[in-house]
Amino acid sequence: MNPEDVRIRYNVSVADKRGGDYEHKRWFSSAVARAGFFMTKITIERHAALSGKHIEHYLELGPGPGTWTKLFLERDKASAYDLVDISSEMLGLAQENLSAYSGNVHFFEKNFLEFNEAGPYNFFFSSRALEYFPDKEVLVKKIAALLVSGGEGFVITKTPKYAINKLIGRKTSDFHSGQVDPKALTGLFEAHGCTVVGVYPVTFNFPLFRAAPLNRALFAIFSCLPLNPISQFFSESYAIKFIKR
Ligand SMILES: C[S@@+](CC[C@H](N)C(=O)[O-])C[C@H]1O[C@@H](n2cnc3c(N)ncnc32)[C@H](O)[C@@H]1O
Asked: In this protein, which residues make up the domain named Methyltransferase (predicted)?
């Protein structure tokens, strides 16, 4: 999707449709949303939050309101955090949400592909933003170029649902059509100077039912294991953990 359309879409949806209360409506307004929050938080804490390790220089693409940034800031207040988002409305929410940590956090209103201000970084994080980039190879190259050798990255992105959608006759909207297969994304990181050390399921959606207990049950069964064909089938999003060589 064209970055200008993404910027306008998020600026409008954050300011108008969601009444400025994006984070609450996205992650806490229903049992299914709260289950999604729980599964994402546990996965980040389990696989990405670098317990006890000092990050130094953290880079996040598409923080939105900073929902997950807080998890890292809570663990490591001494590092410098650079957050890049194309939407001024989203960045405004992040600034409000993270005001308690303002000394360490820097906000950049930019298309990530044009972000050249700072770096290099020791840690890269992004949740649910990759799918907006039409050319994943250009994006992966950019991420790898911004990391120091030995730097780590953790990326969460939506699982493509082409097979299920076809089966139940659901059309994927243009806005969400850029989802990438875990194997293809792993291949891109490997091809551009990174070693993938883990691929994990993150959120689960039991097909056809909007039922938080079923989603949580799938998470309880599969979340400790690497992504496999069964968990991929039920997953709504997955994560890739990598190290820059
Ligand atoms: C679905 S939201 C995810 C927010 C948050 N990370 C989360 O997981 O709840 C996607 C975010 O990515 C940002 N984004 C999309 N394309 C971008 C680009 N080209 N450069 C920078 N940010 C971008 C959007 O503005 C939005 O804030």
From this structure: 59-151
Ligand 1 within 6 A of CB of 237: no
Half-sphere exposure of 86 (CA within 13 A, CB side): 18
Nearest to residue 39, comparing CAs of 202, 243, 172?
202
Dihedral sign for Cα atoms in the order 193, 155, 49, 13: positive
Which residue carries 């939407």 as its tokens? 87
d(CA 94, CA 240): 24
Ligand 1 within 6 A of 11 CB?
no
Note the pLDDT tens digit of each residue in 22-38. Answer: 888 899 999 999 999 99
Question: Does the CB atom of residue 178 touch ligand 1 within 6 A?
Answer: no
Q: In whole angstroms, give the CA distance from residue 102 to residue 212.
A: 35
What DSSP character marks residue 88? H
Single pTM value for the model:
0.94
Query: Is pLDDT at 43 greater than 60 in this prediction?
Result: yes
Domains of the chain: 3-244 (3.40.50.150)
Residue type present at position 106: H
Q: Which residues contact 111 (CB under 8 A, 6 or more apart)?
A: 3, 7, 86
Ligand 1 pocket test target in 17, 68, 87 with most atoms within 8 Å of CB = 87
> 27 CB under 6 A from ligand 1?
no
